[in-house]
Amino acid sequence: MADKAIVPVGVRLTTDIEYRPNRLNPYHARVRWFDPATKRRLSLSEGKADEDEAQEWLQSIIEAAEAGLSPSLATMKLAEYGNANMDLALRGLELKTLDPYLSGWRMRVVPALGHLAVRMITNGAVDRTVQNWIADELSRSTVKNTIAVLVRVMEQAVRDGIIKVNPARVTGWQKLYKQAEDELLDPRALALPDWETLVTLADALMAASHDEYRGWGEVVIFAACTAARIGEISGCRVGDIDTTQWIWTVRRQTTPAPGGLTDKGTKGKRARKVPIVEEIRPLVAQRILSAGPNPDARLFTGPRGGRISTAVLRDATHWDTVVTKLGYEHLRRHDLRHTALTWFADAGVQVHVLRRIAGHGSLTTTQRYLHPDVHKITAAGAALSAHFNVLRAPRSLPSPIVMTR
Q1: Whether this model's pTM surpasses 0.85
Q2: Best CA proximity match to 81, nearest among 135, 169, 150, 16
């Protein structure tokens, strides 16, 4: 494709798009310019899936150059920019505050947003990211410190002229914690009603995914039958499944970390055993067969063999859109765990056993799943009335004693 010369304020840009077949992103967009300070010819390029996407990328650089930004600064990713400017962003903080801020940056901000260009980070992207942190059950202080470091880095970007408004100044996120606390008081209210609804959900999510990848639906069904977190399912290996007794030993979870996803111990820091019910044994057996003989192979992966996270599952299946169409607009991935624990409780599983399956540290947490349904309350009242009737019933008199000589 032909080069196009663009003359923005202060910098002369030359752009072109080259089609390179047999590549995942075949449209190679490139911008070249002379650095006014060094007089050297510089260039940037990225591969895009289609020509329109490539044109949009070039146009964003042109607009940034017209605003006085160099192309390298306009396209800089958040992780790179933050790492290069962290000292400036955190200047003036006390030493005791630096550690939680830097931890929040490494462990949460970079995995969630670090791959995006600073100029492409929007209020909506930050809102969704914060909601995901809360859904992953991070503490208030952890989320507060993580937002704070993101705000400071983005504020530095405002001072550098990369963006005009700081998109990280989110409000109202504390209310989400109140909502989460209310839900935890009655987790049964978050459960799916029955098996048919679960299958319908799994099929709809699969149908909405790219190439209708069956694995997404299987992850959802497996989660709702094992009370496991999505990260624990991602960390499940073939060798963790005992197909003789049909028990899964939960040993690890996959979580976000600097540079991508990584495996670590379970949330409770100890392994636990979970039964694999008959309804999902064929599914599990087929996945074991597909994974091959290696006991360290992952039982569940993405369509290209990648590791799964709750964010990956959400984005790949268009989760929010699908659950809204089905009438479960408030359903989150974590609610699949609530579903399984509710079903186990309704099946009569004793509370101390349910606690072990869930991996709860507190028995009080497990007992919240034992709240009886209305029909059970009615039945309990009827049983007590029947007991009272027995107590009120006249007792037969004993036979008289006849004395003989």
Answers
A1: no
A2: 150
